Amino acid sequence: MKKINLENFYHGIGSVGDLPIPFETVLNVSALVIVLTFVFLKVSWKESILATTESPTSTKQTNFGRFFGLIIFLLIVLPGILSNEEAKTSVSPLILWVFLWIGVPVLGLFFGDIYSKFNPLRLIKKEDSNPSSVYMASFLFLGLTWFELVWRKPGNPFYIAILFIALFVVTNILIYGLKKTSFEVDPLLLLHHLYSKLKIPYSKPFFRTMLNNLASLSKLPGMEYFILLMIGTVTYDGLRGTVLWYDQFGTQIYELGFATMAFIGINLLIIIFYRFACYFALKIGKSNYGLNETSLAFGHTMLPIAFAYHVTHYISLLLFESQTFLYRLNDPIGLGWNLFNVDGVVISYFLSPVALWIIQVIITLLGHMLSVVLAHDLSVKMFGHEQSDKTQYVFLFITVALTLQALFVLSVP
Questions:
Q1: pLDDT value of position 12
Q2: 170-207 pLDDT per residue, tens
Q3: Which of 24, 30, 133, 195 has the most Cβ atoms closer than 10 angstroms to its Cβ?
Q4: What angle do CA 271, 276, 277 make, to 5 degrees?
Q5: Contacts of 138 (CB under 8 A, 6+ apart)
Q6: First to last CA, the chain
Q7: What 3-state class would DSSP assign to 274?
Q8: In whole angstroms, how far apart are CA 246 and each of 76, 151, 253, 267, 309?
Q9: Ranges 7-16, 309-318, 347-356, 401-410: which has the least confidence
């Protein structure tokens, strides 16, 4: 039986062994693919074809959905409250950091927004009105990911229980006390809603339907910042696990203060570059659009990158650690139960490191290429075909830089 060790539960990146081709070739070819996509769009995509009508959002739950959400809530909270079970055997970190964090979003590719049907932070029935912004959800998302990536024990069931109870209390106070909607304050709900926009279409035209789904993302103030935080938090997580990061900053990377500053700094840096790209587009395009309006309009173009980062970074957790679910659920609250008579677990690493790496590279490239397509279509609509390529130079630079950074993290220890 293989022992389970989730002391570094939050980190989904491991060694890929010897790469099948030189790393420099991977970088060069990947950058070339993104640039050629940009050039191809300039030549062949001369009119905007995507609808930008905002799609309605729904948070309705059935009684069964609320009951299932209650079960999920209890499985996350009770192990840390009623026992002193360790992260390596508790079901709590598995449900939060594997199933809710990566498993359900991947299922959303096929079934849409599943999470909203059983949202464990929304157990009391209430009809939502139209949301006005997602700034609060963005702030809470930053706090949630800080706990996951900076806090020293994100897999500890006790701390997870405290975190989830606090998140439940805060979101419900904002919803029922300050009359906010779930989309305005619930970071997990918004996260899953955004990823569900990438649902694989079942009707023709498949590619255009997916693009329309993304282009019709609700233009709520703050939405672009939430998406950029999705990118920035994973960027930090990837970089801080590399030897380069340690060589650059030494043992201070383990200090809470330094880690917090680095975490915030990387997120701010990505936001600043994005805002500059929007400013550059406005100046080159000589448009009357405002900077905030442009920033919000281009937010959906970064969503495929966010999803690609998220999936490639945590896919190993989903594929391998999820196999421990029955073993952990055998004693769901840590009280010594033996519900299924399971005394150990064998994890099948059915994908070789190289095969997993190839999948990660393909997903990374597809996400960034999709981002270039969305940005081109919107720039044609806003600035015209003649100016569209010029307005996107900084966006192209950012996309290539993010591609290379992602591949570096996936490929270099």
A1: 39
A2: 999 999 888 899 989 999 999 999 999 999 988 888 88
A3: 195
A4: 100
A5: 187, 222, 225, 226, 229
A6: 28
A7: helix
A8: 33, 18, 7, 19, 22
A9: 7-16
Distance from C-alpha of 400 to C-alpha of 32, rounded to nearest angstrom: 9
CA-nearest of 199, 184, 205 to 304 is: 199
- CB burial string 70-93: b at 16+ within 10 A, e below: eebbebbbbbbeebebbbebbbbb
- Structure confidence at residue 8 (pLDDT): 40
Which amino acid, one-letter code, is at 40? F
Peptide bond into 205 cis (omega under 30): yes
What separation in angstroms does the CA of 375 have from each of 41, 271, 388? 10, 17, 9
Spatial distance between the Cα atoms of 215 and 51, rounded to a whole number of angstroms: 6
Using DSSP's 3-state secondary structure scheme, residue 281 falls into: helix
Residue for token pair 């930053």: 142
Tokens, residue 74: 């209890």
Mean pLDDT of the chain: 90
For tokens 């570094």, name the residue: 8
pLDDT score at 16: 45
Residue 336, Cβ neighbours under 10 Å: how many? 8
Q: List CB contacts of 398: < 8 A, sequence separation 6 or more.
A: 273, 274, 277
Amino acid identity of residue 308, one-letter, is: A
The structure tokens listed for 274 are 């994005």
Both structure tokens of 102: 């990566």
Beta strand spans in 242-368 (E): none
What is the per-residue pLDDT for 152?
81
DSSP summary character for residue 131:
-
**Residue 6 pLDDT:** 41
In 286-322, where does DSSP find H-type helix?
Answer: 291-297, 303-320
Helix (H, G, I), strand (E, B) or coil at 356: helix
List, in order, residues 6 or more apart from 141 with CB less than 8 Å away.
Answer: 187, 190, 191, 226, 229, 230
**132-183: pLDDT as tens digits:** 899 999 999 999 999 999 998 889 999 999 999 999 999 999 998 888 999 8
Q: Degrees (nearest 5) of the Cα angle 384, 385, 391?
A: 75
d(CA 25, CA 33): 12
Task: Please tell me the pTM assigned to this model.
Answer: 0.93
Structural tokens at position 295: 């920033």
Q: How far is CA 20 from the centre of its chain?
A: 28
